């Protein structure tokens, strides 16, 4: 956020001589400054100069406090506590980029000392051996959809259409760990504690009614507080759960072709490096029956007993090895999802 580059109001001035009025205390507003004083049309660009950024005395209630929100008087009245994160993750192996970002954030000049880093950032990124294209960032979904459509149309081959809704039975391990992941394809039940708190509140409500009907008011005690506390607990659980399950990023319908660029949008299985932002390329398709057989084979291998027999029965869900990688996520009639898809090349 930026403040105005010129004051739109100033403190009232007291005229030494009346203007058409004998009252000496008559006040008037000073003239509004010419708009040419602001940035643009040759005006002073206070952001680029990065000076003191003060047009009026800092004690004035009305006036330009600074270019940035944190330089305003209102900001300081909030008594915010500034916290600087010290542990570096993404740029820990690129100190040149890290130093550039720090100087940009802190307003340190000149930036000419970072010319080599800036030039390197302008250099097109080379494709890796799998042909994965660097991810583009756009501010609006409509722009993302437009770019994806253009790139999809450039590919040869037939489109495969998928719907974000399906009738599936999910592995309970993943289902309880990542309810937001399955919300677009299945109604996930609220956590057990939600139902427990709701039932306890209803029981106390009934008890309260009986005590009032029998005029045993002395036994009511703090029953209202208990009911309110339980209802609030259930409501908080519901709001938190709904927030997770309603924030799906995936489209309800989407199309892909062979060689389509794809990206995972949830942390599905971190040990298997299936994380939010993981990139891949579609290398082929299999029909639903073949894919279901593939998933069953994976489950049978993960649940095989020492004697070589399988501990899995048709339609039975299994947690398998929780370390991830190729464990079954879901089984369904005709459709399935797995943590490891043989038709996708992970980045």
TrEMBL record:
Region annotated Disordered, chain positions: 16-43, 303-330
Coiled coil as UniProt keyword: yes
Source taxon at top rank: Eukaryota
Residue runs in coiled coils: 194-247
Keyword hit for Coiled coil: yes
Signal sequence segment: none
Record key words, sorted: Coiled coil
The protein's name: Uncharacterized protein
Origin species: Thalassiosira oceanica
